[in-house]
Amino acid sequence: SRGLSQSPVRSQSPGYHSFMIRVPAVYFNGTLADRNAWISDGGANRHSVNDEQHFVPGSKVAINKAIDTGNGATLCTTSGNVMLKDSKTNQYVLLRDVLFLPTCGKNIMSEGMMDKAGYRQVKPGDGTLSVSYTATGKILMEGEFDQDDMYVFPNIRVIKDHRQLENTLNHRCK
Hints:
This protein has about 170 residues and is mainly beta. The chain is built from 2 helices and 14 strands, in the order E-E-E-E-E-E-E-E-H-E-E-E-E-E-H-E.
């Protein structure tokens, strides 16, 4: 199943609960060639990256979250914000509280988190996906269905230079 669930997991410290986050095994197998690719996942309940360098400088925080994957469980100890730019639309999106999962084969954009933050995703049935900001209708990102039966964003690049961020932020995704 591709569905992800969030259920409390008792940790070692009293009064603190991490959350079990389920990630499909397909993202962790060795057949997914492009680790820099961004995919849209309707079952993911959090955004995640596989490269700690993707985080906006100064946004990383230490966390303690149990992550249940198709290959077992792991502990996620880092999250932060990630700035993306779609080179086709020339638009920027800031993803907040993104999990760092170094063994994940792709970077995951949670459709649920995008919806919650006010973004609309349209899949018209022709193998394309567009993400727009609901308040304005402006298309921010465009994706396409790939050979692994996932929607990927081929034009998305991570913006790592914080000087580029200061004057270019258009949209934020919580």
